[in-house]
Design brief:
The structure is a homodimer. The first copy, chain A, is of the alpha/beta class. Helix content of chain A is 43%, strand content 13%. In chain A, strands 4-3-5-6 form a four-stranded parallel beta sheet. A two-stranded antiparallel sheet of chain A has the order 1-2. In chain A, helix 1 crosses helix 2. At the A-B interface, helix 1, helix 2, helix 3 and helix 5 of A face helix 1, helix 2, helix 3 and helix 5 of B. Chains A, B: May play a role in DNA repair. It seems to be involved in an RecBC-independent recombinational process of DNA repair. It may act with RecF and RecO.
Chain lengths: 198, 198
């Protein structure tokens, strides 16, 4: 067996991309080399640069290239509101709604005892220090609505209440544009329970 | 507007991947940085290495890292059979069928006068030199069954016949596993015309 050629190595490495199997990896590699070699070089450099430069904000754990991220340093934001999310990608999703002007705390995971992920792994101590600054008044729990995300929210809510802080959770309900016929019963049930008066 | 962060640069660069829009690029970037930074580094290096090392075989134009590719140098192959394909990816597809033991010639394109791609761009002169070696007896035209691929095959077939060489074309017909009900009429018509006696 000869050593891998650089083309074979590229195909192997492309499989690290989410959702890319052997066949797609091959297609991507050939596409880049055939049509757009300068883009391939640029992507290679961007990957190395980002892997080396991007680290976690000392205050909220999100991705940043400096000690404390831009959001945490923004004086326009309301420091009494703290939104707790599982990942930097989740933070970005909340941010893109343009409706939240408070600060964030990124757990970098969710409680999952079966996978050995306990309070320590989700930066629980750091979160307690963060909310004990006397400025945070309400913590919005925006973990996912999966079993693990819900368990994490429940656990954090208990802890927050014990410290006299207000904990809230994102509303569940029918998605915007959703038709009741195609929405699952559990979601409709929650939408009925969480209904608001007009 | 501040300069792009390395994360934003990575998201931009990822859009060079085929089929990746702004949203997928974002998801891929966050996935790599959250879950698999060593794979990101490895992919970055593989891209730079392949972009720098991979060039075209002097004989058949396919991707290689040496002057003449492995396939062209393989003494086990039948040099009297030459398969003409549009791209290295097409060559790989034919190769993976394990049914063809001749050699290849990669056009690196197909005739497309509207896009300014004429005989020169598809290495026509080089193909003529290649088939004039006195060894090639049959040229299998395996360009795509698109309008442009068909036109290219037609053009090459004329040229080959004028030089007394045998030109053949891949068969068209019902795909393996195909059900007539779901196959288009044009394909069935070709399958009837190209039927073989049992």
């Amino acid at each position: 067996m000869p050593a891998l050629t650089s083309l074979q190595e590229l195909i192997e490495a492309l499989r690290a991309l989410p959702g890319v199997g052997p066949r797609s990896a091959q297609r991507i590699a050939y596409h880049l080399l055939q049509h757009d070699r300068s883009a391939a070089t640029r992507l290679g450099e961007a990957l190395l640069h980002a892997s080396g430069e991007v680290r976690h904000c000392a205050r909220c754990n999100t991705f940043t290239e400096v000690e404390v991220c831009e959001t945490c340093q923004d004086p326009e934001r309301d420091p009494s509101l703290l939104c707790v999310v599982e990942t930097p990608a989740d933070q970005l999703m909340v941010e893109q709604t343009l409706t939240f002007r408070g600060l964030y705390f990124v757990l970098m995971g969710r409680l999952s005892p079966l996978d050995g992920i306990g309070p320590k792994e989700i930066h629980f101590e750091q979160l307690i220090r963060r909310i004990s600054d006397g400025v945070v008044k309400e913590v919005i729990l925006a973990t996912n609505f999966t079993n693990e995300g819900e368990a994490t929210a429940h656990y954090l809510a208990q802890m927050l209440k014990a410290r006299g802080l207000k904990a809230s959770r994102l509303a569940r309900g029918v998605p915007v544009g959703g038709e009741l016929e195609y929405v699952d019963a559990g979601t409709i049930a929650r939408a009925v329970l969480d209904r608001h008066t007009l």
